[in-house]
RNA sequence: GCCGACGUAGCUCAAUUGGCAGAGCAAUGCUCUUGUAAAGCAUAGGUUAUGGGUUCAAGUCCCAUCGUCGGCUCCA
């Protein structure tokens, strides 16, 4: 993905940019304002981030022992004070101190002391990033009476941050060092831009992003519904959403048939023993629905599909002639995510993975891996997704989260690297992002709100074949152990559709649109003709509705526009007499009358080619 | 799960310091028979998330539960 290099370069430039300095400096001035209002506040860290900055504070506890938090009024006051402080033109002065001097200077700032100790021991820097070497001196930045442990960079004078280009956005809790077992601090997020106009532009972009939020569009377009009575995180697919999802499923099924995948269908529950044997259970115990105890036997709502597919592999003796064996299923799984983690369709408790498990010989591994990546690229290209990056997730040798031998991991990572390099792909390598059973290559998409979502994934697995003692008979007549590839191009149908909604702002390409055309009869008199045309189009496989409401034509068009229906086919006396439809697209283009057959042929061609333009 | 904000009709939102729960859209009925983004009139729609409490009086104040939203954490 050529995208990624660009991003990395952009990030490097960002960290050296004036804007980055402004945001870093704004964080310091905000902390200064906070300290005025909360003199007892302890400072944690306050870095620039994409589009802004934050600073974390510990405000201590009230008489009842509850953490003191920022109110909305506090935020307004802090923001107002910050503006005043920016205008008073203080100079930012850098200097460095020995570790001991720094310990003295920050003696009543416990979080800073912890950072200083870690710098001295060479673990992490003041921003929390890993460093290689212990340091003997630490950087500090001072403006007025405010001093912070910091290596900069900053602007020279506070005035260089425009007071009218600063806005504090929100507060939230945030764990110290990102660790939920440690103190929860109070974070303030803010943003700074070079000037007021750019700030307003940014706020407008946020507003626009909210307008294309898939939860909002999902309601407006009648795609899905989440009922608290059914269960939070358990979406209900409405007819139009179901059509969209099934269309995607059909598309992938077809692509898989062409590539030698075989369908299987397996149940949504399995005995607990199955997951104990696979090793999934102890790893993910906390994020699973509790086992169902029936007559002394325990069953799990399945959190993944792999063990079921493995049992299919094991159902008969396998020969090298059977491999690669590619078993595919849209398999629904259940994971009890923490309540605060749920989010529309993109983070749910019951979802369907476009899952497949490939059982291959070690010799076939690399080639099969390449084919899977090519399938994923084909899927993304066809659907029109572009803002993706690829990530190679490896195990963290320090962590006990990962099973299997070092050789297994090495072989797996090696296979992925060879495959990705062979395809000339750009990818980042991230330690500690692997599955517990093996390394993986993930495809990560950025949504309208700039959040990143992992969609497609391909994983190499030497472990489960061992756990389940999988075998095949080789050409040599000996027993051999296959390797597994786990893969899901969409990742999950729920998440993928959620992202798809935002990507297209609800205006799906014709082939995916839940309703592809609406017939709009001008008066009651034309309803029969409209129905006749609709039926003709339906017989060719198109998804067509007739607007038989009592509305006037203008209102029917408005409704179809709001529903983002690709084609509006207006029919009145003229069309009925000539056997035509007056074609209008959602891009507000009146294309005039076309014979029904001509429109149909044109539309079917676009559908077949997965075209995104009408 | 944690921090904060919030929960009023199907949807979007009103309701002054605690004092009769409202509007637009959608729905239904009637009239109009209409040419490219909203016709008119009428009707119906509510245990103000749920449960408890304070008060002469609670949508409004307090407590709990459920849920939603923004973050944090997590994401097989």
β-strand amount: 15-25%
- General form: globular
Largest sheet: 8 strands, mixed
Strand order of the largest sheet: 11-15-16-23-20-19-17-18
Overall pLDDT confidence? 90
Low-confidence stretches: 1-10
Termini distance? 27 Å
Rg, Å, rounded = 29 Å
Please supply descriptive tags for the structure shown above.
alpha+beta; 614 residues; 24% strand; 8-stranded mixed β-sheet; disordered N terminus; 5-stranded antiparallel β-sheet; single chain; globular; RNA-binding; 19 helices
Question: What would you note in describing this structure?
Answer:
This protein is an alpha+beta fold. Helices cover 37% and strands 24% of the residues. The chain has 19 helices and 28 strands. An eight-stranded mixed β-sheet has the order 11-15-16-23-20-19-17-18, with helices on both faces. The radius of gyration is 29 Å and the shape is globular. The structure holds one RNA strand of 76 nucleotides.
């Amino acid at each position: 993905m050529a995208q990624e290099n660009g991003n990395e370069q952009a990030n490097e430039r960002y960290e050296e940019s004036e804007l980055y300095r402004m945001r870093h400096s704004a964080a310091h001035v905000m902390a200064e304002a906070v300290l005025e209002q909360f003199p007892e506040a302890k400072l944690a860290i306050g870095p620039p981030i994409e589009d802004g900055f934050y600073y974390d504070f510990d405000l201590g506890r009230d008489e009842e022992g509850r953490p003191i938090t920022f109110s909305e009024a506090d935020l307004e006051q802090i923001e107002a004070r910050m503006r005043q402080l920016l205008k008073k033109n203080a100079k930012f002065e850098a200097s460095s101190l020995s570790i001991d001097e720094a310990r003295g200077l920050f003696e009543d700032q416990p979080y800073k002391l912890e950072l200083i100790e870690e710098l001295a021991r060479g673990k992490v820097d003041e921003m929390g990033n890993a460093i290689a070497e212990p340091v003997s001196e630490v950087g500090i930045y001072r403006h007025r009476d405010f001093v912070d442990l910091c290596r900069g960079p900053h602007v020279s004078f506070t005035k260089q941050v425009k007071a009218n280009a600063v806005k504090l956005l929100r507060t939230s809790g945030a764990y110290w060092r990102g660790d939920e077992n440690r103190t929860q601090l109070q974070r303030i997020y803010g943003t700074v831009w070079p000037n007021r106009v750019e700030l307003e532009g940014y706020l407008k972009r946020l507003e626009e992003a909210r307008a294309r939020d898939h939860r909002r569009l999902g309601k407006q377009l009648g795609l899905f519904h989440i009922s608290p009575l059914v269960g939070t995180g358990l979406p209900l697919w409405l007819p139009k959403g179901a059509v969209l999802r099934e269309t995607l499923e059909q598309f992938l099924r077809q692509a898989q048939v062409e590539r030698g995948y075989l369908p299987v269908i397996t149940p949504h529950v399995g005995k607990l023993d199955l997951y104990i044997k696979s090793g999934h259970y102890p790893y993910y115990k906390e994020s699973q629905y509790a086992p169902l105890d029936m007559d002394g036997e325990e069953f799990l709502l399945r959190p993944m599909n792999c063990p079921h597919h493995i049992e299919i592999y094991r159902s008969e003796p396998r020969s090298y002639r059977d491999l690669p064996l590619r078993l595919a299923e849209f398999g629904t799984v259940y994971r009890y995510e923490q309540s605060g983690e749920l989010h529309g369709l993109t983070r749910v408790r019951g979802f369907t993975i476009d899952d497949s498990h490939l059982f291959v010989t070690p010799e076939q591994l690399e080639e099969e891996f390449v084919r899977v990546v090519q399938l994923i690229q084909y899927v993304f290209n066809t659907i029109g997704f572009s803002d993706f990056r690829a990530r190679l997730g490896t195990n963290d040798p320090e962590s006990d989260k990962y099973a299997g031998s070092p050789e297994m991991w090495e072989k797996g990572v090696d296979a992925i690297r060879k495959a990705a390099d062979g395809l000339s792909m750009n990818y980042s390598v991230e330690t500690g992002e692997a599955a517990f059973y093996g390394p993986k290559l993930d495809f990560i998409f950025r949504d309208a709100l700039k959040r990143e979502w992992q969609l497609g994934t391909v994983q190499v697995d030497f472990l489960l074949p061992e756990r389940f003692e999988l075998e095949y008979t080789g050409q040599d007549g000996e027993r051999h152990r296959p390797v597994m590839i786990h893969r899901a191009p969409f990742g999950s149908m729920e998440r993928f559709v959620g992202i798809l909604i935002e990507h297209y702002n609800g205006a799906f390409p014709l082939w995916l649109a839940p309703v592809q055309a609406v017939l709009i009869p001008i008066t009651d008199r034309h309803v029969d003709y409209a129905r006749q045309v609709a039926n003709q189009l339906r017989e060719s496989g198109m998804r067509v509705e007739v607007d038989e409401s009592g509305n006037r034509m203008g209102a029917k068009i408005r409704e179809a526009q709001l529903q983002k229906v690709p084609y509006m086919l207006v029919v009145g006396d003229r069309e009925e007499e000539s056997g035509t439809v007056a074609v209008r697209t959602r891009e507000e283009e009146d294309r005039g009358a076309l014979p029904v057959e001509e429109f149909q042929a044109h539309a079917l061609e676009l559908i077949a080619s997965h075209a995104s333009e009408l």
